[in-house]
UniProtKB/TrEMBL annotation:
Residues 89-571 form the Amidohydrolase domain. Keywords: Hydrolase, Signal. One of its GO terms (molecular function) is hydrolase activity, acting on carbon-nitrogen (but not peptide) bonds. This is Amidohydrolase. It comes from the Bacteria. Residues 1-19 form the signal peptide. InterPro entries: Amidohydro_3 (IPR013108), Metal-dep_hydrolase_composite (IPR011059), Metal_Hydrolase (IPR032466), YtcJ-like (IPR033932).
Amino acid sequence: MNKLAFAASLLSCASLLVACSDNSPPTSAIVASSDEQCDAADLVLHNTTVYTANDAQWTADAVASKDGRIVFVGSNTDARRYMCGSANVIDMAGNTVYAGFTDSHQHLEGIGRRTKTLSLFGIATLQETVQTIENWADTIPEGEWVLGRGWIEREWTDQQRFLDKSDVDAFTANKPLYMPRADGVSALVNSRALELAGVTRDTPDPEGGRFERDLDGNPTGYVLANAMNVFRDILPPETDAYLKDNLLRGLQANAALGWTQTQDAGMSYRLVDLLQEIHAEGDMAHRVYAAIPIAEASEMLSRGRQTTADDLFDVRGIKVFIDGTLGSRGAALINNYSDADHNGFMNRTTKEELVPVLHAALRQGIQIETHVIGDRAVRTLLDWYDEAYNAVPRNEWASEDLRWRMEHAQIIPPSDQQRFVELGVLPSMQPSHGIGDLNFAPDRLGADRLGYAYPWQQLVDQGLMILGGSDAPVEAGDPRIEFYAAITRKRLDGTDGPGWHPELAVSRATALKMFTLWPAHGAFQEDIRGSIEIGKYADFTVFDRDLMTVEPQAILTAQPVMTVVGGQITYQNRQ
Ligand SMILES: [Zn+2]
């Protein structure tokens, strides 16, 4: 602060001295007295432990912000000078404050969409499944669709039969219902949906599909394959209003979990434009950093980078897909799968398609984010990145600071880990994928390759910054689960399995950086956010316990207390 501004703030507090005392709870003990300096902040969080993610000052007692930026990090005593004027002073005793958490890889619209669709995966009985549908249907207004997915009768322990309309009609009289089975090629519908679709006992089965019927020939409400189409045709259309509502719900759901930024790995321009509207309307509950899918690369390259002055929304990357996933044996491996006689596939994007995009990205300063899972996909993309660097003369690059990313990068032999360092490539990884995939990875990969699968600590040992993410809605998208998975490398019930390599888990300090400072680096934002330091944006995540010291299992039940983005409280648990 320059001298003039400092003098002005002193003056304004002096003239408001009464208000200073009256508005700052608790009273005299902590309030700046008239002979102390007064430098009113907008927000002061004090009487707590603040984990800054800044090595130079790892913890503090209090933090203060003004005009969206951090103005103070330090002791409770020194924080007093900011607790005056109209400062919102919050005693954080019993809670813990962290640098704002960032999810480095998720799909925002899908997070919001998920809140409108019931998941029936993993329910143990038919009775519970029907009860779950009833509870969900009760929350849906009359006339609107009751949507869900994922029921699977062969895993039920009470009865193993297909659901039909008689299971659900009693509580969905005026609400059409459509719920695909887990396989996605058959579905449950109710009487109201049959009526809206005009399906009766006289309706013939379509080519390649069937309406299941009772002995009298009436449709039962279990429909197969192409018979699902008549219902899909009358589902609510994906209008701009529908998508925008999904984005809004996604923002709110993320903020309620403690995320202060999410990095979207493939946001179409239709969604970008809707999010711009949300931004203009002041409804950004957290920051968004986005990459455009390669299908829209030419538009990205003509529009260029788009960013808002408040850094709430930044579009700077192109998202590329290369191979499949390990579970489905679609990840591209150098050698064959240990449990199949092939090595997966790649070329979801071909080299021919990608090379011109890489060259243009170098010339325009666009970040590349590539989905690569198997070691063959990783190695090939390292080659392609390297070739592009050499093909475009340096004096034609927009910047030497590329920070091209690899998303997932699950299997990386040591020699290629070193190439990440040499080429300046950032690994963007999801700890929850690790603890899920390790259930089948030993079968898919065998013992040797497991030694460098999900190799978090090896990468950190190389000096690499891992951008931690969740890939929600594929995963839950919960910072507690990601943090827990990163430090334990165990299932949520605390168990692990043979070959899981516990030594590849990371320390809590590393995990904190994976979800704060390092993602900021991955978005070229380490100078403005990612840690709690004076001058950076006031982005904070508050939980009701100390994630850095509690028993690992207690991390999973921590309650998000408050989320702060640019000094604004975007979520607060009122309980
Ligand atoms: Zn993804």
